[in-house]
């Protein structure tokens, strides 16, 4: 069933686990995430970035996720990931997305606060929850460059930001980066705990592909309720497709190699649902 993120993330927060948010880019990835969640009886969030939205349109992805949600008994959320303008956030709201991120983290504090508050005010009458970001996630999320400046979220700023914007969830910078890590990511668990101490709303971890499972579990213990995975789903899908072409270079049936990609994504998502601790929580 299609639902909003607020209910499942507040339940996760109360229960001390997290819900995985998986970036989907085609029908097979949507199917894979839904099947994994169904099999493990877990709530799940599917999300699309602005560049994914540009590829096929909000309506195409929403239609896929809606169909997947209708075919499963577990709660499924359709979330806009890294919404980069008020306008795109409003388009997602009107299209029927059930959760929206506005990412003003590259702006100055006050500017970030203003746009995040505006999106929250626009979405809340429709009971669509809003995620915002303060601090920075390194690396590159599709077209968005995280840059190299101080990435860490200041706990006191986070408190003020959450209170004054009225957003429902807050993505924080604690040392993760989008994409594949060059070395081991160095996460600042103490900063996360200090944010948790002063911010009441569920916290979100970005850039989780490449973060060791044990570190993710530690973050969940310290207050992370939504865990974003993107790059590793691309890698899994491509691995499945490549496997088919390697075995039979004459393959021409898209169903054949896409199904192999789907299977790899499903396996990956099942393993990460277990890391999040949300299996059986549907
Ligand atoms: P990764 O690509 O590192 O998994 O990051 C995902 C993410 O943060 C999506 O918003
Ligand atoms: Zn992200
Ligand atoms: Na990453």
Automatic annotation (TrEMBL):
Gene3D superfamilies membership: Aldolase class I
What EC number is given for this enzyme? 4.1.2.13
Cofactors needed by this protein, per the record, are: Zn(2+)
Pfam families assigned to the protein according to its UniProt record, in alphabetical order:
F_bP_aldolase
UniProt keywords (A-Z) are: Lyase, Metal-binding, Zinc
Recorded superkingdom: Bacteria
Q: Which GO terms describe its molecular function?
A: fructose-bisphosphate aldolase activity
Zinc as UniProt keyword: yes
- Name of this chain's protein: Class II fructose-1,6-bisphosphate aldolase
Annotated source species: Anaerostipes hominis
């Amino acid at each position: 069933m299609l639902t909003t993120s607020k209910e499942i993330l507040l339940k996760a927060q109360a229960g001390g686990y997290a819900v995985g948010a998986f970036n989907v880019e085609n029908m097979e990835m949507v199917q894979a995430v839904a099947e994994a969640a169904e099999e493990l009886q877990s709530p799940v969030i599917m999300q699309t970035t602005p560049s994914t939205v540009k590829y096929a349109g909000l309506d195409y992805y929403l239609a896929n996720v809606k169909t997947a949600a209708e075919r499963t008994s577990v709660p499924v959320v359709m979330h806009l990931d890294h919404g980069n303008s008020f306008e795109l956030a409003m388009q997602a709201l009107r299209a029927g997305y059930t959760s929206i991120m506005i990412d003003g983290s590259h702006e100055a504090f006050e500017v970030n606060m203003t746009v995040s508050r505006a999106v929250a005010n626009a979405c809340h009458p429709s009971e669509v929850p809003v995620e915002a970001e303060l601090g920075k996630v390194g690396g590159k999320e599709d077209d968005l460059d995280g840059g190299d400046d101080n990435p860490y979220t200041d706990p006191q700023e986070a408190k003020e930001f959450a209170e004054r914007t009225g957003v429902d969830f807050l993505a924080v910078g604690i040392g993760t980066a989008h994409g594949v890590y060059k070395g081991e990511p160095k996460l600042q668990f103490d900063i996360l705990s200090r944010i948790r101490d002063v911010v009441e709303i569920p916290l979100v971890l970005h850039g989780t592909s490449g973060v060791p499972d044990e570190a993710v579990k530690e973050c969940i213990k310290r207050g992370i309720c939504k865990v974003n995975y993107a790059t590793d789903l691309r890698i899994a899908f491509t691995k499945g497709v490549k496997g088919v072409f390697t075995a039979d270079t004459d393959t021409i049936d898209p169903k054949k190699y896409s199904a192999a990609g789907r299977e790899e994504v499903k396996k990956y998502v099942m393993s990460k649902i277990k890391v999040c601790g949300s299996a059986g929580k549907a």
